[in-house]
Each structure stands twice: as C-alpha cells, then as structure tokens.
TrEMBL record:
<protein>
    <submittedName>
        <fullName>Protein-tyrosine phosphatase</fullName>
    </submittedName>
</protein>
<feature type="active site" description="Proton donor">
    <location>
        <position position="120"/>
    </location>
</feature>
<dbReference type="Pfam" id="PF01451">
    <property type="entry name" value="LMWPc"/>
</dbReference>
<dbReference type="InterPro" id="IPR036196">
    <property type="entry name" value="Ptyr_pPase_sf"/>
</dbReference>
<keyword id="KW-0378">Hydrolase</keyword>
<feature type="active site" description="Nucleophile">
    <location>
        <position position="8"/>
    </location>
</feature>
<feature type="active site">
    <location>
        <position position="14"/>
    </location>
</feature>
<comment type="similarity">
    <text>Belongs to the low molecular weight phosphotyrosine protein phosphatase family.</text>
</comment>
<dbReference type="InterPro" id="IPR023485">
    <property type="entry name" value="Ptyr_pPase"/>
</dbReference>
<dbReference type="GO" id="GO:0004725">
    <property type="term" value="F:protein tyrosine phosphatase activity"/>
</dbReference>
<feature type="domain" description="Phosphotyrosine protein phosphatase I">
    <location>
        <begin position="2"/>
        <end position="146"/>
    </location>
</feature>
<dbReference type="InterPro" id="IPR017867">
    <property type="entry name" value="Tyr_phospatase_low_mol_wt"/>
</dbReference>
<keyword id="KW-0904">Protein phosphatase</keyword>
<dbReference type="InterPro" id="IPR050438">
    <property type="entry name" value="LMW_PTPase"/>
</dbReference>
Amino acid sequence: MSKILFVCTGNTCRSPMAEALARALWQEAGIEAEFLSAGLAAWGESPASPEAQKVMAEKGLDLSEHRSRSLTAEMVAEADLVLTMTRGHRDLIIERWPQFAHKVHTLWYHARGEDRDVLDPFGGTVEEYRQVAGEIEELLKRILEQEKGV
Ligand SMILES: N[C@@H](Cc1ccc(OP(=O)(O)O)cc1)C(=O)O
C-alpha cells in the first residue's frame, strides 16, 4: 500500500486539508493508500485552524482530532511520495535529506507538471481557505486519475 505524506509550514492549514481530502477521494475510488501530513515549522501539537476545520466540515470531513506534527527524517524515509505545498518546502526537504530527493515533489508539479505553489491561507478569510481547499482537491483528483490510469 502506498504511503503519501503531505508537507506544509505549520501543519495546521494546507497539509491537514490535503491529507483529509486525499483520504476521502482515494477511499471513494476504492484505492488503498495511507496518508499523513507534517509541517516544516510545526509548533507543538496544535489543532487545525478553525477555518480549515470549517471548510473541511462543509465537505463532511472531520479535522477536529488533527494535531500538528513536525516533519522528521523517519517520516520522509517511510513515505513513498512526499508532496509539498510550495517549491520552498520541497527545496528545504531536499536540502535536509538529499537521499530522498527522488520522491519529493510539489503538489502542483506532481499533479500537473507546473512549477506553482499552493499559497498559505494562514490568517485569511474562510473564503480564502475554501479556495485553497478547492485548489488542493482539484490537484488531488488529477493525481487520482493518473493512478487509475485515466
Ligand atoms: N505563521 C504561523 C506559522 C504558520 C505558517 C503557515 C501555516 O499554514 P500551513 O499549515 O498551511 O503551513 C500555519 C502556521 C506562526 O507565525 O506561527
């Protein structure tokens, strides 16, 4: 079973939403995979931001149990694929652990081959979070289609 790790900065907004959305999409498609998320600058064990929780709840997904975690070498080593929200995140991971460079990509690049970032909604409005969640969901659907060989 493949293991996909999503990485952002704080692990309270983008990567927890990506993790929850991916789990739901893959489950719906009947494809087994394991998902987790972490942050490069995660602070303690913080819950997902209230806006992220709200936007996920609108989609029937529960982020209330989420607690932020810092990315570790072990997490990267154990993942089959590491998808980052920005090129900066990708570059930092590769700088820290060059031996895993082959499996670290941005979400945008892996989904669409484009050098773009999923920008940080931290401090933004719920509508901004909704847009970011929509962007992440579209990119995940593209990856899922590729996995299904569509
Ligand atoms: N800006 C935050 C850190 C932070 C940054 C980004 C952020 O969003 P995400 O979880 O999507 O990286 C969350 C938290 C702070 O000052 O503590």
